[in-house]
Amino acid sequence: MRGGWKIVKFSDLFKNPKKAIISGPFGSNLKSAEYKDEGVPLVRLQNVDRWNFINKNIIYITHAKAKELSSHAYKSGDILISKLGAPLGKACIAPESSSEGIILADIVRVRLDPNSEDKKYIVYQINSEYIANQLKELTTGATRPRVTLKNVRELNFAIPPLEEQKQIVAILDKAFAAIDLAKANIEKNIANAKELFQSKLNDIFSQKGDGWEEKTFQDLSSRIGDGLHGTPKYDENGEYFFINGNNLNNGEIEIKGNTKRVNKSEYLKHKRDLNGNTVLVSINGTLGYVAFYNDEPVILGKSACYINFNKEVNKHYIKYLIKSPLFFENMANMSTGATIKNFSLKSMRNYKLRLPPFTIQESIVQELELLENSILKIESNYTKKRDDLEELKKSILQKAFAGELMGKEVVV
């Protein structure tokens, strides 16, 4: 560590740490029934991210309730830290546009003493591995990891002279701006690749050639139905799985760690007549997930629609149709209400498509598979570059708080 630096407990940076570092009220002091559409804003976990205050889905309480909870107040310029969830210790600065409000129980508010440490330096350090590793050692709770307010106050911070803090912040600001720009370009390239594939799907499924016929799913299948509208009798030792729409993933049935099991008796009671040309589609919640049935030991829930297509239909052709924007556009036109929350069995049966001869279906599937594989490879490469940039951020921060950045140019 560089000369002039010191390691201190967070609380030692403040004249009155108990007032400078506070957390939100316990649940007994604030009920969800007291939340309003306007009034004094509340900061929740979803409003605090690394580096950024998320000014969305803000909830409010009355001015009278805020006055009652004034010891848990924050204002513009305060540091806000999460002490629940994964990852722990996300920190940001309440923006200048933020009016005074109240923090909820899983947020810590830090208010630096005047003319003390640089607040951006503190936020950078809280978001670094240096602090993250300390928090890991202090975490309790397997499903909802958390740390206490006392834990936060006792964190060790690497503190250089104030002028060096400002220099480090200037170096980090410049490096992170370059990294964020590079990441934004990567995200744009990923979006462009996905858009290219979606555009190709629309082009194919909106065309019509010689021998193409307009058909409905009902015309092309022997049966269309859904799964059990209710809950089967679970058996943790059962050899069969109860699946829903969220188990359908790009042509495959995905058995997850939390997928419930049933025994043979329950399976025989609720099984559906499925075959090798069955296409499964999620029709509630997240819509349009697709899988094929390949003799898996499963029973279906109500959000999994099954369509037993005839042999004149290539099931992979249907998979790509359902993944196309055109499919969702047509389903929207067949639905009632402001938004589509589910696909009804009636709308699935009545869905119209232009179906080419089987040999053309096969050639279209081959073309789309080649394009999709190319797009996935492009996305994978870009995703790796994006992950590398995140690792670069961690590396730069690690060097910053080991005193290794001073007088150096960071190359991104």
What would you note in describing this structure?
- This protein is α+β, with helices and mostly antiparallel strands and 412 residues long.
- It is built from eleven helices and 21 strands.
- It has helices at residues 17-20, 63-68, 119-126, 129-138, 149-153, 162-205, 264-270, 315-322, 325-334, 345-349, 358-400, and strands at 6-9, 21-23, 40-43, 59-61, 73-74, 79-82, 91-93, 101-103, 107-110, 156-159, 213-216, 221-226, 240-243, 248-249, 252-253, 261-262, 278-282, 290-292, 298-300, 304-309, 352-355.
- The strands form seven sheets. Strands 2-9-6-7 form a four-stranded antiparallel beta sheet. A four-stranded mixed beta sheet has the order 4-3-8-5.
- The radius of gyration is 28 Å and the shape is elongated.
Q: What is the topological layout?
A:
Elements: E1 6-9, H1 17-20, E2 21-23, E3 40-43, E4 59-61, H2 63-68, E5 73-74, E6 79-82, E7 91-93, E8 101-103, E9 107-110, H3 119-126, H4 129-138, H5 149-153, E10 156-159, H6 162-205, E11 213-216, E12 221-226, E13 240-243, E14 248-249, E15 252-253, E16 261-262, H7 264-270, E17 278-282, E18 290-292, E19 298-300, E20 304-309, H8 315-322, H9 325-334, H10 345-349, E21 352-355, H11 358-400
Parallel strand pairs: 3-8, 13-19
Antiparallel strand pairs: 1-10, 2-9, 3-4, 5-8, 6-7, 6-9, 11-21, 12-20, 13-16, 14-15, 17-18, 17-20
Quick summary:
The protein has helices at 17-20, 63-68, 119-126, 129-138, 149-153, 162-205, 264-270, 315-322, 325-334, 345-349, 358-400, and strands at 6-9, 21-23, 40-43, 59-61, 73-74, 79-82, 91-93, 101-103, 107-110, 156-159, 213-216, 221-226, 240-243, 248-249, 252-253, 261-262, 278-282, 290-292, 298-300, 304-309, 352-355. With 412 residues, the protein is α+β, with helices and mostly antiparallel strands.
